[in-house]
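Re: weekly structure request thread

Next one in the queue (295 aa):
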Amino acid sequence: MVGRWELTTNVFVTLALASAACYGAADFLGGIASKRAPTVVIACVAQLAGLVLLALALPLLPSGSPLRSDYLWGAASGVAGGAGVALLYRALAVGTMSIVAPTTAVCAAAVSVLVALALGERPGALAGVGIVLAALAIVLLSRGDADVDRESIDEGSKGNSGIALALTSGVAVGLFFLCLARTSEDAGIWPLIAGRSVSVPIFVIMAVMSRRTFRLERGTARTAVGCGTLDMLANALYLVATRDGPLSLVATLASLYPASTVLLARATLGERLSRSQTLGVVCALAAVVLIVRSS
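Done, posted below.
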């Protein structure tokens, strides 16, 4: 077991960090698109785009041998992930991206790590410090500029609803991480297909019942498709990472996705990176180093 850990540490760390980068970019695009069109429609288009991507990639990937439990865990991940994504996109649309994304992430990481520890994982002293630093990094990343914070307070109930949505989304995302991690190594990407096969019809029904139109402007549609593509790529990277590394570490690294969301928001929307957020990036890097050295 120790030898396998040493052989695959760089692999699962790289995959988990790559999934974090893709998750963050997908969330950024989802938040942008949700400002222009109903959240349920954006989530539906994004989820469908991810399912199409899986269908196109399936012939190019090794065939898996999924168990019945893999399909069930995949379906559960589709429900949890779909709910988490919809709530997150709405929170990103009504709140400040650099606050909403980290709030969701720290909840997701907490749920995953606590359950992993309850199931018997013992990541070791260095990795434990890395997990704590990663949690601190997420919290620091959520602390925006003082002027931005005052503006958020002035917005009153709108800001509060964004945080409430972010907290609920974080729990759902944490459950999504757990469900995928429970699938077997031989399942291939079938759990992801099962998940999207459940989530897409749910979003379609929700959109129809709310009488939302699926007619989107071309730019908004491209943004939603890009969001779904990146989100599915992140899911695939995370799924493979959980098969090479312990859940407590993989989920922690994947939950660092607010870094890319914050940086993209700064680069394109002019949201300022505060001293706390800069320190958060430093803590995130230190956490990665400690987790790597823990092997």
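The CA atoms of residues 61 and 263 lie 33 Å apart. The radius of gyration is 18 Å.
Next request, please.
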